[in-house]
Amino acid sequence: MTKIKHASFDLDGTLVKSAKTIYKTTTNSLEQLGIQFNLPEAEFNKMIGQHFNDIFKHFKIIVPDFEHFIKIYKKNYFDFMNDSELYDGVCETLSYLKENNIKISLLTTKAQDQAEKIITHFNLDKYFDLIMGRRDGIPHKPSPEPLLMICKELDIKPTETIMIGDTELDILCGKNAGSITCAATFGYREIEILKSYNPDYLINSLSEINQILI
Asked: What are the boundaries of each domain within the chain?
């Protein structure tokens, strides 16, 4: 196998245990906008990582002004940050990769400014060579485009890259880009769902990344 020179991580469900924050922010924002909803938390958590448009469609929630919802959501998000925490081994894993000269990027469907704030909040910014959040005009996962953009900017081939995430969007993004894929079983998808997308690797904890890459 080609030597891996770049690890691209998803955020929610991979580096940050954020389900409670996301759920509380979503319901609070909908309430603030006077939008009626029925949003069972356990079912909602299984869809984390997908675009809000798809989530709302699934739950038949009508959001008249989606961009205004996103604005309110982003404003409210940090009111619930105390409900988020890093998964075990995040700092140790990122530090180990850094010490071994492996480039590290973040690829998330969260907006660019929000992704940067979260990484800074958890004091992880020193580890990342590039942060790619949702940006206007750029398709989000499972499109390969954002991952290919990261690879180009870091001057790393997609075949030398491993995409690490907890959802089918991460696996498909990596496969579509021609990269190696690694599914995190400790996030927001059941292991059988992840297996059905045939990732190259499955990990039960972040520390297992070190055994794959080095």
From this structure: 6-17+85-213, 19-83
Exposure of 123 in the CB half-sphere (CA atoms within 13 A) = 3
CATH class of the region 6-17+85-213: alpha beta
Hey, what are 168's tokens?
A: 């089918």
List pLDDT tens digits, range 88-123. Answer: 999 999 999 999 999 999 999 999 999 999 999 999
CA separation (Å) from 93 to 28, 73, 86, 100? 34, 30, 12, 11
Q: Are 163 and 174 in contact (CB under 8 A)?
A: yes
In this structure, the chain runs to a length of: 214
